[in-house]
Amino acid sequence: MRTKITHALGCLPCGSLRMAAIAAVCAAGMAAAPAYATEGALGRPITGMQVTSYAGLIPPEPGMQWSLGYVHYDGAIGADRRAPIAGKVAFGIEADVDLYSATGVYVWPTGKGRWNFASMLTVPYIEPDVTATLEVGNATLRRTDSASNLFDLYFAPVIASYHVSEVEHWSFGAYIYAPTADYDPDKLANPGLNVWTVSPGVGYTHLFQKGTLEFSAMGALDFYSKNDDTAYKNGVVGRIDALLIKRTASGWGFGGAAGWIEQIEDDSGPTADRLNGFRGHSLGIGPIVTYGKKWENGSHVEFQFRYIDEFSVKNRFEGEPLSLTASFSF
Q1: What are phi and psi of 198, to 5 degrees?
Q2: CATH says 2-329 is which class?
């Protein structure tokens, strides 16, 4: 069976095990971006953005892989929708967020077999602009804030991948967001969230048509620590994303992605109680375009563009996020 698995991995699109490794564990460029839910209507995941190509697969070829990412999110909560932010209740919140990320992935030298392992670290930089109408006593105040600084560090100490067969693969990991960025409870726009988040996740990949048609999915639960500066604790958030991509001999790939975010536990704290727990959910769907190339010296590069249209949104920002990632090894 080891021979069959190794042979199938060698037949991945672009003939590149390294590109599979990059795509499988470089979700960080998108997953590290903040989306608006929970406190400040601000949480970790963006609908349809968490899953990457080969989400279930870490191949046996060891070494460092690299990825650069950009995510843009422009969304709003309706003028009549109240949300917690800056330790207060606000409505009519609008946000424009740009996030840039650099990710390094180390694939462990565990050899060819049923299991392979990797570790990942992402350093993100964020530029949020937020406008909201705050309730201050019996009055209201329209206010705008912006920030530009490093975002919370994002890492996974161990990601394990199990090869069921030459075409079916699972991955298991605990993805951690550390509150390393600046945070001011009196500001609307902050580089960080001021909370730890631990996200145990499971990825799945199935390859069809000799590896040129890929289905991948990623599911996770987000557990948040309490924000001591605002006495606010976000409830557990569940999410699942999936993608389908058809790759061609020219290097181009075309497909789509969809996502579902569902908060399964109420937020808690004085502000959350005023908003009846502020539990939210959202759905999203959109297209994906990829391009990958491999050179004779072993270098590889892959680009991916993704656009998601969110809908059926409650107690979250509703917008049209887009992302661009470049993954490479040399």
Answers
A1: -115, 125
A2: mainly beta
